Amino acid sequence: MRGQVLLALLPALGAHGIRIIQSNDDGWAELYARSFFNALTAAGHDVVLSAPAENKSGSSSLDAEPARRSSACQYNSCPANSGPIGRNESLPRLNWVNSYPVTAMRYGIDTIAPPFWNGAAPELAVSGPNVGSNLFLAVPFSGTVGAAVYAAHDAGIPALAFSGASDGTLPWNTSPEPQRSKVYAQLAARLTDAVVKSGKPYLPEDVFLNVNFPEVAGSCTDASKFKFVLSRINIGIFSEKDVEWCGDDRLPTEQSVIDADGCYVSVSVGDANDKTTVAADKQAVVLNKLKSILTCLA
User: Fold this and answer.
1) pLDDT tens, 135-149?
2) What is the DSSP letter of 279?
3) How many Å apart are CA 290 and CA 194, to the nearest integer?
4) A GO molecular function for this record (predicted)?
5) 246, 181, 243: which is closest to 213 by C-alpha?
6) What is the dihedral of CA 36, 41, 43, 46, to 10 degrees?
7) Which DSSP letter does residue 205 get?
8) Of 77, 176, 91, 168, whose CA–CA distance to 130 is shortest?
9) Under 8 Å between Cβ of 263 and 165
């Protein structure tokens, strides 16, 4: 616990980074989200988590004002009869909202996070990592994606949505921390840092990144083994050409990247208006920003 407290205090102690709002759809006490929070904080970013009080997977872009709880939060992480929003009093950057992922992201941006930053707004929004993949047809229904899209489209904050194929929900205090949670946190933090280091504006307007990690298994159990591949969300049979990359003007689909033999991470440039793939000109902006960490499928 003492180590977690020190991690939460790093931004206040002068570490260099940016203001990041984090949410998810699996619940504020889910291990994947907490591992990612710790990784971002350890990297020097000033992170505030605002996520649903319980698992709200599959809630897409639903948004409703939070109501008071009558039962305990997920994994007994808050007591019964708590208010509509709450926080971990010993780690106040960890907050829950008794509603949907979009609502939690909205409250995080408008109400919960600004007091930590002297009234300033988040510079970047991240969502996840989700427990399970969010590929192609699942994207419109994903609460993890919904939270990121709200940030990008409604709040004008560049956003990244992360999902991991290794599933199985676990509470925040699982010990020892499983390798899958550590690897996903490290990979998500690495890509987040690459976006930040690319400079402002971090992403084009009305754009989010939909990022999917393969299973942490077999030869893919070390974060250093994974490679990032630029991809597209939908199949795109009738779509305009993609940005030219890896000798082709059609990017691989997320599913083909995840299914490929190797430790490949799909990074799709999504349109925050409709949760599909953006046009080639915006893909090109992201490609130029992230080219140093992107690779081609073997």
Assistant:
1) 999 999 999 999 999
2) P
3) 7
4) nucleotidase activity
5) 181
6) 120
7) T
8) 168
9) no
Per the DSSP assignment, residues forming a β-bridge with 163 are 130, 212
Report yes or no: 80 and 138 within 8 Å, Cβ to Cβ.
no
The CA angle 51-267-180, to the nearest 5 degrees, is: 60
β-pair type (91-97, 85-88): antiparallel
Q: What pLDDT, on a 0 to 100 scale, did the predictor assign at position 298?
A: 81
Omega within 30 of 0 (cis) for the link into 204: no
The phi and psi torsions of 173 (rounded to 5 degrees) equal -100, 20
- Give the pLDDT score at 242: 97
Unique residue bearing structure tokens 């990359």: 245
- Torsion angle of the four alpha carbons 85, 88, 90, 94, in this order, in degrees rounded to the nearest 10: -100
DSSP secondary structure letter of residue 44: T
Could you count the other beta carbons within 10 Å of the beta carbon of residue 259?
13
- Sequence-ordered alpha helix ranges (H) in the chain: 2-9, 31-42, 101-107, 143-149, 179-197, 254-259, 280-290
The SS3 assignment for 141 reads helix
Would the pTM count as exceeding 0.70?
yes
Q: How far, in whole angstroms, is CA 161 from its chain's centroid?
A: 4
* Whole-number pLDDT of residue 237: 84
Token digits for 116?
């930590």
What is the predicted pLDDT for the residue at 16? Answer: 62
Which positions of the chain have pLDDT values less than 50?
Answer: 1-15
Q: Judging by DSSP bridges, how do beta strands 227-231 and 207-213 pair with one another?
A: unpaired
196-205 contact pairs (CB < 8 A, 24+): 196/17, 196/18, 196/45, 196/124, 198/289, 198/290, 199/289, 200/123, 201/158, 202/123, 202/124, 202/158, 202/289, 203/152, 203/158, 203/159, 203/285, 203/286, 203/289, 204/278, 204/282, 204/285, 204/286, 205/156
